[in-house]
């Protein structure tokens, strides 16, 4: 995939950051763009796309005229060959000759009938070195037509199925890129959660040390008990341990994100907490209509049924009368010189009918046909079930996305309340109006509310990118998703 302007600017920015500092700040959309343009997964998707394209080109070449040149140059022989004598014995005679030939042939397949138009021009030269003679033989030109009768026409069926496979592969490429976006968002939020946990741990450790300092002063003047001081010391140790664990987790998450997005070097990534798209409205009917218009599965439904019909047609054709009618017209002549070979050549005609009629096959032909018909019914039922799953998955994801929007509003509000409650609790504890137990509860609620908000953001964006994947539609720009 060719890099976009955004991707190029992002690469330049990353290069500058890598040279000047150790940390680069990225948003969710920037991470997704980077993964689509630089990740190993995107290169694999591009390779698969190119493979499918050349497979389609190979299919198209079957319907184009074919021209080939065949020959034996030279055909020199000096040896002894066995020759059967009139009395039945074998005698070995020396031969010393050159038997060279050239054949220029063309053919053109007829998809509607399955037949082939062909033509040829041939030239053969035989030199007998022992007798010092030369003989030419050839066909100045010949035309013919070969028509299978009652046979399976693979060209006709491929002409209907292969373009569907190619269209399907193009949509699969877009789906692969959207799957990369889903995976990139997962890695993004893995690091974002680790980043938030580190921020929480650092803040908690600093606050705990400050509160412990004040508590020690209160203990010295007898305002609090030794038990409260010990509890705060324990909280400080927990906060210090949590900070160490958070630093380890963010290092791992940072490495995973860099590996997936293809970012090289010792650059550390710092992520910006994304906002939800509050003004976007995604309707169920819109997603379904776009999914049926864009998804590879929608093409595959029809393609699979068509392939089942093809298999039935092949089973019926291969188990009946098979015949091939071939007709050929042209000219040929043998002469001692090259120029004489083309003077007044003789007519060359050929009409041939080859046939194969099964007389007794112990029901094999009928069994093959019935098997193909049974498989077609199975495919029809499977496609019907897949269509239901296709619709149900979209309906479920749209419903989930609406739920995630509501959950995000609630968790954002809970995070704000919990943070405010903790600040109040901390001030009250310093003033001596709150117990250490209540402070610890406010402390835990604040941390959990912040994590819940990040989890809600992760679920929201996962559902958003899933809807893009399921419909191949950009709901922000209100247009179909395409990649060059």
From TrEMBL:
Listed GO CC annotations: cell outer membrane; efflux pump complex
Signal sequence annotation: 1-20
Gene3D superfamilies referenced in this protein's UniProt entry, alphabetically: Outer membrane efflux proteins (OEP)
Coiled coil region boundaries: 198-247
Compartmental location: Cell outer membrane
Gene Ontology terms, MF aspect: efflux transmembrane transporter activity; porin activity
UniProt key word tRNA processing: no
Main subcellular location: membrane
Keywords: Cell outer membrane, Coiled coil, Membrane, Signal, Transmembrane, Transmembrane beta strand, Transport
Similarity comment: family membership: Belongs to the outer membrane factor (OMF) (TC 1.B.17) family.
Name of this chain's protein: TolC family protein
Record organism: Paraflavisolibacter caeni
